[in-house]
Design a protein that fits this description.
The complex is a heterodimer.
Chain A (H helix, E strand, L loop, with lengths): L1 H10 L2 E4 L3 E10 L3 E3 L9 E10 L3 E10 L3 E4 L4 E3 L13 E5 L22 H21 L17 H14 L4 H18 L8 H8 L6 H12 L7 H8 L4
Parallel strand pairs in A: 1-8
Antiparallel strand pairs in A: 2-5, 3-7, 4-5, 6-8
Helix pairs in contact in A: 3-4, 4-5, 4-6, 6-7
Chain B lengths: L7 H17 L4 H12 L4 E4 L6 H11 L4 E5 L6 H5 E6 L4 E6 L6 E5 L6 H13 L1 E4 L2 E4 L5 E6 L12 H4 L4 E4 L5 H12 L3 E4 L2 E4 L14 H11 L6 H16 L3 E3 L3 H17 L7 H12 L4 E2 L1 H5 L4 H12 L2
Parallel strand pairs in B: 1-8, 1-9, 2-5, 5-8
Antiparallel strand pairs in B: 3-4, 6-7, 10-11, 12-13
Helix pairs in contact in B: 1-3, 2-10, 8-10, 9-10, 9-13, 10-11
Classes of the chains: A alpha+beta, B alpha/beta.
Chain lengths: 249, 329
Amino acid sequence: MFALLMSVQAQQKVETPLGLPTTITDLYIPGTKVEPIPRKDREGSLVIRVIEIKPAADGFRYDLEVYGLDPGEHILSDYLQREDGTSINGLDHSAQITTQHALDSLPKPEELTIIPPKKIGGYRLLSIIVGILWTIIFLGILFYKKRPPPTEAPPPPPPTLHEKLNTLVNAASDGSLSKNQQAELERLITGHWKQSAPELASLSPSQAIHQLRTHPEASPLILKLEEWLHAPNSSASQADINQLLEPFR
Amino acid sequence: MSSSIQSDHLANYIKAIRDRVGEIVVGQDVVVERTLIALLTSGHLLLEGMPGLAKTLLVNTISKAIHLDFRRVQFTIDLLPSDILGTEMLDQKTSKFRTHKGPIFTNLLLADEINRAAPKVQGALLEAMQERKVTLGSNTFSLPTPFLVIATQNPIEQSGTFELPEAQLDRFMLCHRLGYPTVEEEEEILRRNLKLGVEKKDGGAVARTEFDLVSDSAIGTPEDLVAATEAVHQIHVSEVFLKHVVDIVERSRKHPDLELGCSPRAGISIIKASRARALIHGRDYAIPEDLFALAEDVMLHRIRLSYEALAEGKTPKQILKQILDASIS
């Protein structure tokens, strides 16, 4: 029965945090009274204090307060003795105090697992493929045969100054010039003389007209035209104008 | 003289004015002509040129020769509209508002460096130029007749200036660009300056300037000026001349390098100015030479290049030359 009781007591493995007190109640130990072995140095891993001793059938029941100073499992009987100083015999060695370090109670970090990277490569191949594709597309654009535009007749060249003048001079001889055509005729004659006389080529139209009004060859026509087209009471007749325009036919 | 309208008296009158100015100012005959054109057509004139080209002397001489009242205003950044137009002032003796008319109440106003003034001052002046009226307080005053503004601006120095926008530039009938005198003219200017001498006055002496040579005696009478102004309106403008004007204005609007072509006001100005030029040159009808001679002064400040043309380094003068050359080819 004693052995069974001890066994039950011992199987209640007491766990205590490091440095903090844990109370063990009603621990039955047969025989004479026991007491903690006095600590003479700092080697001991447990500090035991007897709180209360209660008489039992063949021994006593003890309430103990235990401080675990070192982490690990400690046998309780190693720290107790009889009052006469003898050791306790027959106490089950399995009565243990397990002291845990505070850090041991904290959750442990996940173990790092090394995952080997995937195989690096293929960039060079990809670059080569892209380069080939780019070259093919570029050459395709470059040498793509565009359809030739439908052949159209080139636009007729704009009439030259002489052609325009000739048309207007012919109309003038018929007396069928509109006011717009008269104005154009006057401007084209100025342009004709500006092109014909090298000394007038670089001049502005204003300077050219000013020079032409005193020019020995051009002035008779220019002044007559001015009078014909602009004077309120022109004395110039159609015959006079036709005669002056004769060189432009 | 080809006209029966313009009397010998009128021809002599205009010639005498040009001669009088020529006695004082050397080599600015075209500017004198443009000023007379502006005066006879009630237009306004903008002169662009460097300092020292006798702009003030020229205007001063013309005003005295024609017996016109002349005022000059130097435009600055801190000028106020009331400094030009005038204002109403409280007379402490009578406790009533008294109107103080500004320098704009004159016949000939020289607005020196007009682009230096703030836009509100430019706007006030240009509005008065357009309407020929000034409102001070609750009273509206008509400006004297004739009224001509000759404004100047320096084309190079642009820092601290307010460029006149196109809409306001359009109100100037002519914008003439003054150039430097020729070598011969420059020599003549220096010779004349050497002969100026010293003027003794009030017990002291001071070097004489060209302004001291300007005679106060007027040529002709105000009636002569009125007659000349009327004569301009008698100058014949043919249908063919109108076609020339429309052609050139139209070309400016269709030119690919121009963002802004000439307005109808430009066409009106060309015809007005051509009439006055014909009168000055002794004709009773306008001819294409008038048009082409005045085209730059009338059109160049009214056109604006496109962004692409500016980026290509083209200038308005080049484009106008292209337009004029194209019209005769």
